[in-house]
Amino acid sequence: MAPDAAAHEEGHHRNVQSGGARAAVFGISDGLVTNVSLILGVAGAHPAGTFVRLTGLAGLVAGAFSMAAGEYVSMQAQRELFQRELEVEAQALRQSPVAEHEELVIIYERRGLEPALARELADRMMRDPATALETHAREELGIDPQSLGSPVLAAISSFAMFAVGALLPLLPWLVSRGNGALVASVIVGAVAALAVGTTLGALTGRSIARSAVRQLAVAALAAAVTYGIGRAVGATA
Ligand SMILES: [Zn+2]
After folding, report:
1. Environment class of 13 (CB within 10 Å of its CB; exposed 0-12, middle 13-18, buried 19+)
2. What's the rounded Cα separation, in Å, for the pair 153 and 71?
3. 23 alpha-carbon distance from chain centroid
4. Is residue 22 a contact partner of residue 203, using CB atoms and an 8 Å limit?
5. What is the DSSP letter of 138?
6. What is the pLDDT of residues 43-97, one digit of tens each?
């Protein structure tokens, strides 16, 4: 039981770390692509500083709230679903402990344990009700009750990451305006997109150059489209 628990802890830890880092980079990427294209769309129509700055700020706040709300709602729903499944499992353990015991023996046998060993392991896991529930949740539902995650923390982190990404292309417009700010915004956006792509490439173990170029291409395409729309539609105010 000890090596199994240790391996589980380690795997869990690793997942949380790389998963969290990846989620952070994706959040920054969302904010970056959204606001680069929003800012360039408005700048394409009318590069006067005040409109672009207001649009960029509104895009930052609106996008960050939207990401936070989406993250909160989806994690909360997932938690509720898990909790309901856990209650069903807890009830089954109370009402038919023998059947649940046999179920665990069969699961361990299917995993390749000798029948006697499978029974012994199941005996031990079923001895303590809390351990029994945790074991059944993990083996049958693929849930670790200890790591359901906090919807509020996830929402705050989504908000912050999107805001960081959205702030980057907005920075030049906070201190400047006109074509100078436009060029600076494009440069900052491109450098940030390359950095995001590089980080994602490193995190996923894929080709860093390809990942960086792909990220830049996606951001450039989105920005080019909205800039084109801005130029074509224009602003008559
Ligand atoms: Zn069960």
Report:
1. exposed
2. 10
3. 3
4. yes
5. I
6. 998 878 788 999 999 999 999 999 999 999 999 998 898 889 999 999 999 999 9
**Cα(203) to centroid(ligand 1), Å:** 36
Summarised one tens digit per residue, pLDDT across range 12-48 is 444 455 667 888 899 999 999 999 999 999 999 887 8
Give the residue extent of every domain in the chain.
Answer: 27-231
For ligand 1, a single-atom ion, the residues with CB < 5 A are 100, 136
Residue 146's pLDDT is 74
Ligand 1 centroid–CA 97 distance in Å is 9
Give the span between the Cα atoms of 121 and 167, in whole angstroms: 54
pLDDT at 28: 95
CA of 99 to the centre of ligand 1 (A): 8
Tell me what pLDDT residue 149 has.
Answer: 78
Residue 2 CA to ligand 1 center (angstroms) comes to 22
- How far apart CA 29 and CA 16 sit, in angstroms, is 20
Q: Greatest CA separation found in the chain?
A: 82
Confidence of residue 235 (pLDDT cuts 50, 70, 90): low
Task: Please give the distance, rounded to the nearest whole angstrom, from the Cα atom of residue 103 to the centre of ligand 1.
Answer: 6
Here the tokens at position 183 are 């060029």
Give the mean pLDDT of 136-165: 88
Q: Do residues 134 and 145 make contact, with C-beta atoms less than 8 angstroms apart?
A: yes
